[in-house]
Amino acid sequence: MSKQSNGKRTGREFEALIAWIQKCVHNRAKIETNIRVRDIDTGKLRQIDVGLRLSDGPTDYFGNC
Fold first, then answer.
1. What total number of domains does the chain contain?
2. Counting C-beta atoms within 10 Å of the first and last residue's C-beta, which end of the chain has fewer, N or C?
3. What is the pLDDT of residue 22?
4. Structural domain includes residue 28
């Protein structure tokens, strides 16, 4: 895993691994790492480690890991 300059792990490699796995499972999906999305209830921006977007006809799906 990646480390910050202070020696703490950042988790970036783990996020990349999860994104790769999701892309293998959902080959038509757009996989994004370390994104910010607006919370549907509060309207605040939230940080998401791995997001998955998939369109199927008129329906758009969003999931996070």
1. 1
2. N
3. 82
4. yes
Instruction: Using DSSP, state whether 39 is helix, strand or coil.
Output: coil
pTM over 0.70: no
Structural domain range at position 56: 12-64
Say if residues 1 and 10 touch (Cβ distance below 8 Å). Answer: yes
Residue 7 lies in a domain: no
In a domain, 36, yes or no: yes
pLDDT digits (tens, 9 = 90+) for 8-56: 667 888 888 888 888 888 878 888 888 999 999 999 999 998 888 988 8
Burial class (CB in 10 A: 0-12, 13-18, 19+), 61: exposed
Cβ–Cβ contacts within 10 Å for residue 30, how many? Answer: 12
The confidence score (pLDDT) of residue 6 equals 65
Does 4 reside within a domain?
no
- Which amino acid type is present at position 62? F
